[in-house]
Amino acid sequence: MTLKPLSGVRVLDFTFLPPGGACTVMLADLGADIIRVESPAQKGRPSMVIGQVPLSRGKRSITLDQRNPAANAILARLAASVDVVVENSMPGSMEARGFGYSHARAANPRLIWCAMTGFGQDGPNAAHAGHDMSYVAHSGMLGALSADMPWQPATMLSVPAGAQAAVIGIQAALLQRVASGEGAFLDISLSESMGWFLTCAINPFSDNPYMLLGTPDRRVYGCGDGRYIAVASAEPRTWGALCDGLGLPELKDRLHKADQAAETTAILAQAFLARPAAEWVERLAPAGAAVTFVNRAKEVLDDPHIKARGSVVDCAGVPTPVNPVRLSTADGQRGEMALGAPHLVGQDNADVFTAAGFAADEIQKLEADGVI
Q: What is 182-237 written as a DSSP string?
């Protein structure tokens, strides 16, 4: 038996950008039934979030022309048959079209509405355009990652942060609904989701030398082959193992000595140039030093630990990182990812609309009229 804690939870997915796609695919992995709402103009094509299979798997797809005068009444009936709505439109835009939280709640008071936006539902920036870089910059994360600016991320950072915040919020709202019988509105800001990770940057551990960043014991060093090694040897034990492994036992008493930090960093930087990065890791890690090879993104596919853990799996021929939530029970039940190729747009019209109470002839007429 497969462990699916969100089995029975139905989600109407209006999202079309990566944050929403990542949110709903995590919900799918946990057992939720995700129903994407897409344009009839795309019918028959793969149901994809910006062409990304990993963000599109495990979801059903229906079509609805939301500009059609009949659309809002149809959406109200669909809302009555689901538990959660997830959308990533600009604040107030769905409400202005005649189907926002107030309309959905009237149809289903137990509904949970999750709105994912860049800057939140209110405030001076709420109506500002943006994408991942905008939210990473606004949150302070872009400036916190490196003192050297400009710093150009090579991947999206606010996408998984916002997605995980949304998933946590949805699950909390589902639990609250059990007790209260009422739904909820979730205001998920991607900028705030990134800002959550900046607690230690906003409030530095100035009184705790074990938590300071950028010191000789916590930094990235270049090695002899041009690759890098990440050092996090902040305790006497791991620092001692590092110094011994580098052949520099005289540095052991310099741990957390701020007045010697610059000189110590320079000595370590010179020492690491003597060997390739991978060789240093093979030498130092087994000895107890906290060191890690700095992988490039594609290199994780061949990383021995990643392969042993099955941290990247195949989904319709595409390498896909596993859901980081690994569930298992005492009797051996395990959660499994929702793998398999994305559905075709509109593939699930008959099943979904029938389950929502639409008669067969009604569905046929809606299709004939181009509404779905």
A: --EEEEEEHHHHHHGGGHHHHS--TT-GGG-SSSTTEEEEE-TTS-EEEEE--SHH
The whole-angstrom separation of Cα 45 and Cα 146 is 42
Ordered structural domains, the chain, with CATH: 10-198+313-368 (3.40.50.10540), 209-299 (3.30.1540.10)
- Token pair for residue 358? 């639409």
Tell me how far CA of residue 371 lies from CA of 85, 167, 274, in angstroms.
20, 31, 68
Neighbours of 348 (CB within 10 A): 20
- Name 85's Cβ contacts closer than 8 Å, sequence gap at least 6: 11, 12, 14, 79, 104, 111, 112, 113, 114
Where is 303: in which H helix or E strand? none
pLDDT tens sequence for the chain (372 residues) = 467 899 999 999 999 999 999 999 999 999 999 999 999 999 999 999 988 999 999 999 999 999 999 999 999 999 999 999 999 999 999 999 999 999 999 999 999 999 999 999 999 999 999 999 999 999 999 888 877 777 788 889 999 999 999 999 999 999 999 999 999 999 999 999 999 888 877 777 666 655 566 789 999 999 999 999 999 999 999 999 999 999 999 999 999 888 899 999 999 999 999 999 999 999 999 999 999 999 999 999 999 999 999 999 999 889 999 988 888 888 877 778 878 889 999 999 999 999 999 999 999 999 999 999
| Own/partner pairs, 309-314, CB within 8 angstroms, 24+ separation | 313/337, 313/339, 314/339
HEC profile of 123-149: CCCCCCCCCHHHHHHHHCHHHHHCCCC
Look up residue 38 and give its two tokens. Answer: 């897409």
Total residue count of the chain as it appears in this document: 372
Contact 58, 338 (CB under 8 A): yes
pTM of the full predicted structure? Answer: 0.91
- Packed helices 158-180 and 132-139: angle between N→C axes, nearest 10 degrees: 80
Distances (CA, A) of 73 to 77, 80, 347: 7, 11, 22
Rounded CA separation 158/326 (Å): 22
